[in-house]
Amino acid sequence: MTRVSGIARRWARALFGLGESLEEAGVLLEQLMELTGQVTDSLELQRVLFTPIHPRVERRGVIGELCEKLGLSKEIRAFAMLLVDENRTGELPGIIVEFKRLVDDAAGRLTAEVTSARPLDPEELERIRRVLSQRVSADVTIEASVDPSLIGGVIARVGDLLLDGSVRTQLESLSDNLRRG
Q1: Same-domain check for residues 94 and 30
Q2: Where in the sequence is the domain holding 66, given as residue range(s)?
Q3: Is 145 inside a domain boundary?
Q4: What is the average pLDDT score of the chain?
Q5: Cβ distance 144 to 120 under 8 Å?
Q6: DSSP per position, 7-57
Q7: Are 73 and 141 contained in the same domain?
Q8: What is the pLDDT along the chain (181 residues), one digit of tens a residue?
Q9: Domain end (from 88, 104, 120)
Q10: What is the pLDDT of residue 50?
Q11: Are 90 and 59 in contact (CB under 8 A)?
Q12: What is the pLDDT of residues 136-179, one digit of tens each?
């Protein structure tokens, strides 16, 4: 999970304020994710955009061309240019995380962090999503990750709710019970 700095939170809130509706904010999120994906996938773009050794004019030109190529809205173009001007392009991953949280909150959605011992197939993830949605009485989206040390089972966290059905935790509990007699 990406750590979100206070700076990234402020930038995300500012961008969220540009969306006049939840639908428009969702479009801005998609475009920002597309831009960030392009940057993340290219070491050359990262080198140019994230290091101040390149003049600001060059970085603005690169980000402008990329926004043009992707057909991004004027809001995202202006936001990206401002990030370059303020040397904040390195905050993009945190801005995305926070902006997504703001859009989800406005839509009444919660995000569940689901960790399993092995990759889960789409049907399993959908079943887990439905159960969690019923449990918290809200629409839930899932961020899945894999941790082989769980041995088996699943750990799900939605807000303050933690559901731990991992084999590792069950074995630890059994071991504790056996030690206590």
Answers
A1: yes
A2: 6-104
A3: yes
A4: 91
A5: yes
A6: HHHHHHHHHHHH-SSHHHHHHHHHHHHHHHHHHHH-HHHHHHHH-TTS-HH
A7: no
A8: 567 899 999 999 999 998 878 889 999 999 999 999 999 999 999 999 888 789 999 999 999 999 999 999 999 999 999 999 999 998 998 999 999 989 988 888 898 999 999 999 999 999 999 999 999 988 999 999 999 998 888 999 998 889 998 888 888 888 888 898 7
A9: 104
A10: 86
A11: no
A12: 988 999 999 999 998 888 999 998 889 998 888 888 888 888 89
Domain final residue, candidates 46, 78, 104: 104
Q: How crowded is residue 25: how many other Cβ atoms within 10 Å of its Cβ? A: 20
Do 62 and 22 lie in one domain? The reply is: yes
- Other C-beta atoms closer than 10 Å to the C-beta of 106 total 14
Angle at which helices 43-50 and 56-70 pack, to 10 degrees? 140
Question: Could you tell me the two tokens for 5?
Answer: 């700095």
Q: Is 62 exposed, middle or buried (0-12, 13-18, 19+ CB in 10 A)?
A: middle
